[in-house]
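Dear colleagues,

I hope this message finds you well. In preparation for our joint manuscript, I am sending the Ornithine cyclodeaminase (Thalassotalea piscium) sequence together with its predicted structure, so that both groups work from identical material. I would be grateful if you could confirm receipt.
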Amino acid sequence: MNTTNKNSPNISYISVSQMQRILQKIGTEHFIAGIVEYLEQDFAKWESFDKSPRFAAHSPDGVIELMPIGDHEKFSFKYVNGHPKNTASGLQTVIAFGVLSDVDTGYPLLLSEMTILTALRTAATSVMMAKYLARKDSKTLALIGCGAQSEFQAIAFINMLGIKTIRLYDTDPEAIKKCYNNLKNRDVHIVLCTSAEEVVQDADIITTCTADKKNATILTSDMVTAGVHVNAIGGDCPGKTELEAKLLERADVFIEYEPQTRIEGDIQQLPEDSPVTEMFKVIRGDRDGRTSDEQITIFDGVGFAIEDYSALRYVYDLVSNNESCQQLELLASPSNPRNLYGLAMTSAE
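The corresponding structure tokens are as follows:
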């Protein structure tokens, strides 16, 4: 009789409830800081990764994407959607899950929810980029868009950059109220604003994070003064933008992966030869980031697979020695690897 190979590893599985427990045990601030550490490690070895723009299946109402990447040790991918209309039906705009695998065997190591984890890694990416691009004395963050990402962004900047004032604006007053209620017990001054023009006043860093799948001008050039860093993370698919082209032309623009950002980022508005800097060069010290207090910097962030790889790797290291971590029986593993049929015909225990 052919039986299952008892030595075959199962996959560590992180459900939404398990991610909640991990996050509440560690704390949002420490979790984001941990991802930042892994991000910097992985961006520093940029050339070791097999990279490609993500695969995207677009529809009138949204997009479904696969985001793969790997190096000589591990491979990961994320399934993620973006459907702005979902909130009207009580559904999330973005849901995701991801897999981390061992390259030597091809066996998956971790299957994890990534709806919460994507928000955490996006905040970690934003604050990591701002470490290199924002003025060191930055104290005020303006948030344009108070949706699912907003609190994670605020907490990251408060904890890692020492932000003291958060200014909030959204076209939906209920979203502003939600964000305020989630942040009001933090050690930060919160200012509620009624327009985009008001929210950017006196801001050192401006984060734009809106959901509408359209070419929009959330931030115009005249709204941004010298020395400001713009963390533009809402433009993430073809035909979706947040920044006025004139602002991009005034600033020094930094990106993740040029072949993808040219398709999906705010720089899709610019000529293909417009100057941009991939951030791995800045993180590694090959190129300058901020060079003066008067410089306007923009991180045109669309989300890249290396960030998911880093986040999954961080979670895997957190749980790999945890005996209470749930194991998922997903892989067929006959005791005789050549007799898969024999396993299929064996009664399940």
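For the figure legend, we might mention the following. The mean pLDDT is 93. Residues 11 and 328 are 5 Å apart (CA to CA).

With kind regards,
E.M.
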